[in-house]
């Protein structure tokens, strides 16, 4: 096992009816900015629950944060924070609203010339405006980590940011919110969480038995509950398992003491930036090709994954190959397509474009061995057409 330090300060509040507990978590004298997305919370009852819980607070609202939170929209929210002397942020939404809120938590205290620098220059946020979240969509794990991904349509970019100052103070996980989540987003959530585990597992063995089993158990649970939740999102037990899997997949725990990859996400973000494909679907497009291309270096973990997660038997090399196929089939079972050409007709030239972008950014060695060059990336993206 590799050396590590682990600190995660987010208080997780799980359970049916827990939104009512909001007032216990936010300082009574806070001037709160309530942030939300395109309005689903107004039709599924979550907005009303939040407002009722915070009846005694001084609240300003900002809605309209789009999926793949857009920089220009967030700048409008930043003006509201400054004009209204906001002291506390509350995100009510999925990964996009939570990530947008993290950007604002950072930008509110940022003194540099242009907040985009936080993303383009990878400026770590040591201290941000305090914020909490009410999660409405299990998927990203953003509710218990310190990272965010922000989109800028003007330049067709999607960039990451983070730092210890960006953990939510608390996150409320009420499994009942899953009832209103559309099929497309349920499938996205399962796929995203599954791929988060793969990014932190599908590398090479370092003798970290417990981390391996944490990872495998999350994947096994997701495989087990996927058909249940797709069939009936109102199944509160399955919804709770789904939520907790998504949170645990990316709250830092399973990546401690092991190598991590994250190249699938790096390539996937470019597909969202260029073609506006849902985040999870970009991962399903890239992951199978990534594992096939890097088969030699990932072979041992692929075999272990095939044996333990999919119950495959036979010669190790064959198990490893079949494990990639089973992963692809799992995505298909969620009605997620795994080829770029199934999402856009204009895919020619994508691989070259991504190769160029990574070269320009100096991303010359991705993956657990820091050896995946922009040329390798180009081949993987081509394999995903
Ligand atoms: O906008 P509203 O009206 O809220 O509707 C949303 C949105 O249309 C809807 N939705 C959410 N909860 C709902 C609901 N509809 C009905 N009932 C509910 N209870 O779902 C749609 C998608 O929401 P979004 O927040 O965009 O989805 P998700 O949670 O998948 O977040 C995706 C974003 O997170 C980033 C992605 O790149 C993408 O921008 N990620 C963030 C990560 C992180 N911070 O750690 C890691 C991930 O790898 C990912 O990159
Ligand atoms: Zn993801």
Automatic annotation (TrEMBL):
Superkingdom as given in the UniProt entry: Bacteria
UniProt KW keywords: Oxidoreductase
Domain Alcohol dehydrogenase iron-type/glycerol dehydrogenase GldA, residue spans: 9-175
Residue ranges annotated for the Fe-containing alcohol dehydrogenase-like C-terminal domain, each copy included: 188-382
Recorded GO CC terms: cytosol
Pfam families for the chain: ADH_Fe_C (PF25137), Fe-ADH (PF00465)
Record-level Gene Ontology MF annotations: alcohol dehydrogenase (NADP+) activity; butanol dehydrogenase (NAD+) activity; metal ion binding; methylglyoxal reductase (NADPH) (acetol producing) activity
Listed InterPro entries: ADH_Fe/GldA (IPR001670), ADH_Fe_C (IPR056798), ADH_Fe_CS (IPR018211), BDH-like (IPR044731)
Gene3D superfamilies the UniProt entry points to: 3.40.50.1970, Dehydroquinate synthase-like - alpha domain (1.20.1090.10)
Homology family: Belongs to the iron-containing alcohol dehydrogenase family.
Name of the featured protein: NADH-dependent alcohol dehydrogenase
């Amino acid at each position: 096992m590799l050396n590590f330090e682990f600190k995660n300060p987010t208080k997780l509040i799980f359970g049916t009816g827990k939104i009512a507990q909001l007032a216990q978590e936010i300082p009574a004298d806070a001037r709160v900015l309530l942030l939300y997305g395109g309005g689903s919370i107004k039709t599924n009852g979550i907005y009303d629950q939040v407002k009722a819980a915070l009846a005694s607070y001084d609240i300003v609202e900002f809605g309209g944060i789009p999926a793949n939170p857009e920089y220009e929209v967030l700048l409008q929210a930043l003006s509201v924070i400054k004009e209204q002397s906001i002291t506390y942020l509350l995100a009510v939404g999925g990964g996009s609203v939570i990530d947008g809120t993290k950007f604002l938590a950072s930008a509110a205290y940022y003194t540099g010339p242009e907040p985009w620098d936080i993303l383009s220059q990878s400026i770590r946020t040591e201290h941000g405006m305090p914020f909490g979240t009410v999660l409405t969509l299990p998927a990203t794990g953003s509710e218990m980590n310190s990272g965010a991904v922000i989109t800028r349509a003007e330049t067709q970019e999607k960039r990451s940011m983070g730092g210890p100052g960006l953990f939510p103070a608390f996150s409320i996980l009420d499994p009942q919110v899953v009832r209103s989540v559309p099929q497309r987003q349920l499938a996205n959530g399962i796929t995203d969480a599954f791929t988060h585990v793969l990014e932190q597992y599908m590398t090479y063995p370092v003798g970290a038995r417990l981390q391996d089993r944490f990872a495998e158990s999350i994947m096994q649970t997701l495989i087990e509950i996927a058909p249940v939740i797709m069939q009936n999102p109102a199944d509160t037990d399955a919804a709770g398992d789904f939520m907790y899997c998504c949170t645990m997949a990316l709250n830092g725990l399973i990546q401690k003491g092991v190598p991590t990859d994250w190249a699938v996400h790096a390539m996937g973000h470019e597909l969202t930036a260029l073609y506006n494909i849902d985040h999870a679907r970009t991962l399903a497009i890239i992951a199978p090709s990534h594992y096939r291309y890097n088969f030699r270096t990932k072979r041992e973990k692929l075999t272990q994954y095939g044996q333990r997660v999919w119950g495959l038997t036979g010669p190790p090399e064959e198990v490893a190959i079949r494990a990639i196929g089973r992963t692809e089939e799992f995505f298909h079972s969620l009605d997620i397509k795994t080829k770029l050409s199934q999402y856009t007709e204009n895919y020619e030239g994508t691989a070259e474009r991504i190769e160029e972008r990574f070269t320009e950014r100096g991303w010359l060695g991705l993956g657990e061995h820091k050896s995946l060059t922009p040329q390798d990336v180009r081949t993987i993206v081509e394999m995903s057409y």
